[in-house]
Specification:
Keywords: Membrane, Transmembrane, Transmembrane helix. Helix content is 37%, strand content 27%. 17% of the residues are buried. The chain has a 5-stranded antiparallel beta sheet with strand order 2-3-4-5-6. It is elongated and about 80 Å long. A hairpin with a 2-residue loop joins strand 3 and strand 4. The longest helix has 25 residues. The protein has one domain. About 16% of the residues have low confidence. It contains 5 helices and 8 strands. Helix 2 crosses helix 4. With 224 residues, it is an alpha+beta fold.
C-alpha cells in the first residue's frame, strides 16, 4: 500500500513538473528590448547606414600610413610614440542596439514579403523567425527570437559575447532560454558551435573590419 502511494506521488510530481516545463516553454519571457515604431525603425536604420558609410570612408582614408579621417580618439602611450608618429589610430564605428534591431526588423520584413508559401523549400532545420529583439548590456549581447516549435510560437532567448578570430565573427553563449525555461549552456553550445561552423561563410567580416566586440552597451567594429 505504501509502495502504491509512493508511486502515485512520483507520477503526480512528474506530471506537474512536465506541465510546468510546458507552461514555461510557451510563456513569453521578459522582453530584452522595447518594440520600435515604424518611424523609429526607419530613423535608426538610416542612422546605421550613415555610420557604416562614414566608417567605410574613414577606413579608406586612414590606412596604417597615417592619413587623416580616423574616428578613433585613443591616444598612444609613451612606449609607442615613435611608431605613432607614422601611424594614425584605427577607425572605429559604434552602433547601438536600436540601430541593429532596426536593420534586423527591415530584413525580417523583406524576408516576409518575398513570397514564402507552404510549398517553398527553405531547407530542413531552417527556423522561420517571426519577430526579434536585440539589446546590449555592457559587453554582452542579448537576442530574443520568435519561432515555431511543434507548431507553437516560442521565444528563444540567447545571450553571449561577440568576438573575432581569423577574420570571422565568433559567438560564445552565456545564457539560453526556451520561453521562460532556462537551458544549461553546456547542453546547447556544442550544437550551436557546429551550426556556426556550417554557416562560417556568413560570419566572414568585411575586408575593412579587423575586430568586432560589444563594449559599454554598443557594438564596436574597428578598422583592419
Amino acid at each position: 500500500m505504501k509502495k502504491f502511494k509512493l508511486d502515485r506521488i512520483i507520477s503526480i510530481a512528474t506530471l506537474v513538473a512536465s506541465l510546468v516545463a510546458i507552461i514555461l516553454v510557451l510563456k513569453r519571457p521578459t522582453p530584452v528590448a522595447q518594440p520600435q515604431t515604424p518611424a523609429a525603425i526607419a530613423e535608426h536604420a538610416q542612422s546605421f547606414d550613415q555610420k557604416m558609410t562614414q566608417f567605410q570612408q574613414a577606413s579608406q582614408t586612414s590606412p596604417a600610413s597615417g592619413s587623416p579621417g580616423s574616428t578613433d580618439t585613443a591616444k598612444p602611450d609613451a612606449g609607442h610614440m615613435a611608431s605613432s608618429a607614422t601611424q594614425s589610430p584605427k577607425a572605429e564605428v559604434h552602433i547601438n542596439s536600436d540601430e541593429i534591431s532596426a536593420v534586423l526588423a527591415q530584413s525580417l520584413g523583406a524576408a516576409g514579403a518575398s513570397g514564402i508559401t507552404p510549398n517553398s523549400d527553405v531547407g530542413s532545420g531552417a527556423p522561420v523567425i517571426k519577430d526579434q529583439q536585440v539589446s546590449f548590456d555592457g559587453d554582452v549581447v542579448h537576442g530574443q527570437f520568435l519561432t515555431q516549435i511543434a507548431g507553437k510560437d516560442v521565444w528563444i532567448t540567447i545571450s553571449g559575447h561577440i568576438g573575432e578570430k581569423d577574420g570571422y565573427a565568433t559567438f560564445d553563449p552565456t545564457e539560453f532560454k526556451v520561453g521562460d525555461l532556462d537551458i544549461p549552456v553546456s547542453l546547447v553550445n556544442p550544437a550551436l558551435q557546429k551550426k556556426l561552423a556550417e554557416e562560417r561563410d556568413r560570419l566572414k567580416l568585411p575586408d575593412n573590419v579587423g575586430g568586432v566586440k560589444v563594449e559599454n552597451g554598443e557594438l564596436v567594429m574597428q578598422q583592419k
